[in-house]
Amino acid sequence: MKTPFVTKELVQEIVKKYPTPFHIYDEKGIRENARKLKEAFSWNKGFKEFFAVKATPNPYILQILKEEGCGVDCASIQELYLAEAVGMKEGDIMFSSNETPAGEFAKARELGGYINLDDITLIDFLDKECGIPETVFCRFNPGGFYNVSNDIMDNPGDSKYGMTRHQIADAYRRLMMLGAKNFGIHAFLCSGALTNDYYPMLARDLFKLAVELHEETGADIRYINLSGGIGIPYRPGIKPCDIMKIGEGVRAAYEEIIEPAGMEVAIFTELGRFMLAPYGHLICKAIHEKHIYKEYIGVDACAANLMRPAMYGAYHHLTVLGKEDAECDHRYDVVGNLCENNDKFAIDRDLPRIDIGDYICIHDTGAHGFSMGYNYNGMLRSAELLLKEDGSVQLIRRAETAHDYFATLDVCPMMKNINYK
Known about the structure:
alpha/beta, Lyase, Ornithine Decarboxylase, Chain A, domain 1, eight-stranded parallel barrel, about 25% strand
């Protein structure tokens, strides 16, 4: 079973000030995990983690990771503003956008970020907008299916991201003609891998590609970005990835391929789920029960607070706080109040008896939890809290209000006389 990092007693204290639902993050766990990742790749002197901001776009979280030596991966100008707010400096930002609007490359360059080009047609767009920097990354898509240990992990051929093998060689040549001097390769070929083999296999492929491209084009390839893709065990009983073994696997590939070629390459990672997901909970309260063809428990959270179960059918483990040791002898659908039948956090889940007022911890929401929130049905997004290392709880984002929701209707005179509660 999964053990929450909060207790019923702590939640009862928190709700005196911050009512449910809310997302809460574990500072101690985040820091320890960041340090372990850094240790796993300490053999590579240029190693750096660029945390995927889209996973948990909160400046307090980014500040913690910055203090642990991490940079950030951004995909929009809003995410660049967050990087700027926490003082990310030159070399701390990877800008991995696609279908990039005007002005965003210029902002990334202003902040000293690495530009990661998703497509060869963006070269001229970048040059026209803000010039070609000395260091440029290009995103690679090998096409077809990506297999790890004889299992199909994903289908890059159906992905909108990245350049073909032929295009990336042409891109390097074109970029060198325009003044680029140093190059990086980036690839994201799999999401949520629960095998220690994925990163080493991806690294081997990219290391071979780097050697080939260097020999073929003369490009000085100094960086390999393995991106994200390392998963976490959402279900109890599944063995988590061993980041130390993963680091050693990448090291073996590096020593086999990069070192004999006389190259020296810095390894970058771009993890979101692995870095944050286990260190976040969505805490909600049982407020209704329903007995029809199935047994339902209604909670005060909904898919607007955590979209993954509704969007992907994703499993998130549930703990009824204070009943951790009780027998799971009741079968429930645990649901929210959206006017959508897929607004379910659990389906046919065996849980202890749930009483109205019980607090429920939804696990592994630290990445792609709050960040995927939305306002369908006029639902308001919850607060975010931080459980600090000293045991205190800090508000790091207040809950939305009706004033926030209607703020962009300030052009509408009809809304001016509404008394929001």
